[in-house]
Each structure stands twice: as structure tokens, then as C-alpha cells.
Amino acid sequence: MRGAAPRSDEPASAVVAQHAVRRGRVVVLVTGLSIALVVLAVVAAGIGQLHIPPAEVLGSVLRRLGLDSGAAATHPHTDAALWSIRFPRLVMALLVGAALATGGALMQGVFGNPLADPGVVGVSSGAAVGACTVIVFGWTFLGSWTAATAALVGGLLTTLLVYATARDGGRTQVVTLVLTGVAVNAVAGAALAFLTFLGDTQAREQIVFWQLGSLNGTRWPYVAVVAPLVLLGIVGACLVARRLDLLALGERTARHLGVDVERLRVVCIVLVALLTAAAVAFCGIIAFVGLVVPHLVRMTVGPGHRVLVPASALGGAVLLLCADLVARTAVPYADLPIGMLTALCGGPFFFWLIRRTRRSAGGWA
Rounded to whole angstroms, how far apart are CA atoms 352 and 67? Predict the structure, then answer.
């Protein structure tokens, strides 16, 4: 009996140690991402044709908050450049990055598939078609919300189509998901080409903008439209995170634990469409953020969605803010399409992920 006690205690102590290590990783990840976000935000706000030192950036923010402290501006146009041009673009980058990463985490959770992503399966393209339709026909029936609403409808319809096609016998096949995404992206590309043909010169320029993806020209009214959609989507994703953890155990197990699986899927689909529409509505198609960020977070802290969802939102904000900084500064006096940069980084990662998934699954069958 005495000899058996240590053996029975060993598994429990190992589990406790494993949880402690995981909690430590979560703290390190969240702290590191938070610090990186603040540092990148201050640096990005100060870099541009008008260089603004970090101390003056912080001083401008403090003065706007009513605190008469911090370094005073040395240039007469410092506050105008920060609050009219750079801060709106910075906040939009944070919101769009968080939206895309959260949408990717939700899609991977609801499909139970590591290759699911709003861009890969065509949800972003569907949302872009909705927004570009509004541009070409000049619809303004909802004011500044018209493009975002059309993008939401397009993204929702595309997500429902992907879900209905990829599901077969209660399972989501990897190859079916990828092929569905290829087909949806092809149809959306044709629709965008047709809309380009129908539109005038200004509409065509805007459609090209959607396809390349850019944060250039962001203003506070655009942020005011995107912010509530993104916040609503992230809050909703956090609320369903625990049920996604139960769904990961299998549909039958989740049902026995009281999860309404079909209702959960519908809610997640609506949330993904909402987040994707918010990201696409004013910034165009920005690919691979929703694929790369959740995987990197999952590799660090594990698959639990209660940590994965908020950490992915934070990581997506950091990634897109960094990408936008590169887009603004890589070429002097030019603004590179941010969608091009994320595709250049995300494409190789996607190739690696496909090979890794195939090896672990023993093939596509």
C-alpha cells in the first residue's frame, strides 16, 4: 500500500505541473503581445513623412485625455497628422487584425479543421462582392452602413454555402473544404470582374482597392462603423468559446454535455460573417491573417478556445499593425497593398500547414 501511493500521486502531480506550465505560457504570451502592441502603436504613429518622436506621440494622447503632461509638439502640424491621419489608420489596423484572427479561430473551431480561414474558404471574397456591388450601383439606403451591411450579407451567404458543401455525414472533409474555397474564390473573382466591367472609372479604382487590400485613406467615420461590429463579434466569440471546447471533444459528447451543436454552428457562422464584413467593408481583402495567427497561438498555449480566441484577437492586431507599418515604410513615398504583404507571409505558412496536416492524417482520404 505504501509503495502504491506515490504511483497514484504521480499522474495528478504531472497534470498540475502541466497546467502550471500552460498558465505560465498564457501569461507570457498575453503580456508579450500587449507590450508589443503598445510599442508598435507608438512607433507606427510616429513614423511617416513627418517624423514624430515617441515622447511627442504619448504627449499628444495625454493632452487629448485632459492630462497636461508629456513632451510638447515641436512641429505645428503634429497633432493634426496624428489625429486626422495616423491614429484612425492605426486603430483600423488593430480592429481589422483582431477581427480576421478571431474569425479564423472561430472557423477552425466550428469546422474542426486547421485549414479553415475566412480568406481561404472564400468568405472574404463573398463579403467583398457584397461591398463592391454597393459601390458599382451607388446604393446608400443605409448611409455609411450600406457597404458594411452588404459585406455582411455576402459573407454570411458564402459561409453558409461553404458549411453546407463541406459537411457530409456529420463530418467536414479537409479536401472538400479547400476545394469549396477554391470554387467560391473563383466565382467571387468572376463576380468582381463583372462588377469592374459595369462600373465607371471611380468604381473600378475602388474595386481594385478591395482586391489588393489597404488601410490607406482610413478616417474616423470609417472606424466608427467598423468598431462596433468588431467588438460585438469578439464578445460573441468569447461567449461561445467554452462550447467550442466541448465541441472539440466530438459532436456526440458535446450534445451529452448540453451543447446545441447546430445552434452553436449557426451562431459561429453569423459571428464569422460579422467579423469578416467589418474587416472587408473599408479595407478590402486581407488574406491569411485568420489562418496564421490562431495556429501560432495554438502552438504556444494549446487549443483551449477560452484562451485561444482573445489571444488570437490580440495577436491579429499586432500582426496587422506590423504589416501596415511595413506597407507604409518599405518603399519611400509609396503605400504598398497590405493584402499583398500578408499573402507573401501567409502563403508559405499555408503550404507548410497543408504538408503537416497531410502527414498527420496519413493522406487526404
Answer: 49
Rg of the chain, C-alpha, whole Å: 22
The Cα 142–Cα 130 span in angstroms is 14
Rounded-to-integer distance, Cα 299 and Cα 311, Å: 12
pTM, 2 dp:
0.86
Are 329 and 314 spatial neighbours (Cβ–Cβ below 8 Å)? Answer: no
Q: Which residues pair with 168 in a beta bridge?
A: 171
The CA-CA-CA angle for residues 289, 294, 298, to 5°, reads 155
Q: From CA 214, how far away is CA 296, in angstroms rounded?
A: 24
41: nearest Cα among 279, 353, 291, 324: 324
What does the pLDDT look like over 127-161, one tens digit per residue? 889 989 998 998 988 887 888 889 888 888 888 88
* Cα–Cα dist 142/120, whole Å: 30
Euclidean distance between CA atoms 268 and 114, whole angstroms: 16
pLDDT in tens, 37-48: 999 999 999 998
Q: Quickly tell me which residue has 484562451 as its cell.
A: 307
Nearest to 155 by CA among 188, 192, 111: 188
Cα dist. 200→115, 130, 155, 314 in Å? Answer: 37, 17, 25, 39
Q: Which helix (H) or strand (E) holds 316?
A: helix 305-329
Backbone angles phi, psi at 163, to 5 degrees: -60, -45
Q: Is the dihedral of CA 125, 131, 135, 138 positive or negative?
A: positive
